[in-house]
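Notebook entry, structure prediction.
Reason for the run: the old model in the group folder had no record of what sequence produced it. Starting over properly, with the input documented here first.
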Amino acid sequence: MTRAAWTSWPSREALSARGRTRPRAAVAWSVRVGLLTLMLWGTFSSGRFGPWEIAVGLLGVAACACAGWAFFRTSLEHRLWPSLGLLALLMAAAFGAQEAGAYVPAVVLWCGCAVTAMERLPLSAGVPATAVALAAYAAVNTEGWVTTAVTTAGLCLAGYVLRLDAEARGSAQRLLAQERAARVAEAESAALGERSRIAREIHDVLAHSLSAQLVHLEAARLLIEREPSGEFRDQVLERVVAARSMAREGLAETRQALSALRGEVTPVEEYLRQLVTAEPGEVTVTGKQRPLTAEASQAVRRVAQEALTNVRKHAPGAAVLVRLEYLPDEVALEVRDRGGCRSVDELAVSGSGYGLLGMRERAELLGGTLEAGPGEEGFVVSLRVPA
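New structure, fully documented this time:
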């Protein structure tokens, strides 16, 4: 056996109770309950006890149970010296029980320490601890050396078999986790490839057509500006300039959508600050920032964009406060303006028909919520989506 095998701990997956099947978990709990019951029975079955002796016995059993639980935690965290200290404490409790005449609890503690030390500690520490526990058990066992030798050998073998079984279970859990991660990565890669294909199609059709429209609208603007000034000419020029501005905004939105499809979006915080640049407002970000899922990021962007569009339409010039908060399992966006109150029904049907109804549907599709209504000074839109 190599030196690393003697000094290495069993893996955390092997020591953890996660991944155990229900029958295996039921057996483990049954063994623990059985041992605790055996200790209680062995403590109080040797004679009559007064209230003081009963209280001391119950306190001792409870202390041993707590020490055993603490040993399982420290060994799970690969803390050697605390684990050895707890084992020493349990063995000292076994000696105390033996001196008090409680032979059964002492045997349970010595055998339990021997098996768990072999199962959960590095072999360089587990083997000596098991040897000490079994030597103490053999010293008080007067049934004959053959029985003692068979029992101690069986306990050593049981501890080592449990160790091998736990390691095999831990290796299976690691392989399963790696396989799941590989499948997730494969699915994400396939999804990214499909989004890239869709982005290319959109770019070839919509982005090219919008770019061509911009060129023609700019040419039309230059031609119109060369004509003599007049009411009709000014009206046509105004319409062309407005159409050019709309085409430019549409092209910018298309490029952002294409970047989102390709997974090349700018951080949400930066996008919100760019969005508020032309407004008399501010953006605040709270919580620990982290990358958002593509769906959550897109929802935050679209809701913020629609809310600011509504502010421009129904409260032009009003100050806007945008607050983005990172919560443990979700992200919250709040857009608040200081203009006059507007009707919710009016906003729901304004613009292109997206309005509050579309924002709420987008949030609900992601398992989130959207609330909108008059605030203290103006209108408030609040979004919460899992992220």
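Summary: The longest helix spans residues 145-226.
The old model has been moved to the deprecated folder.
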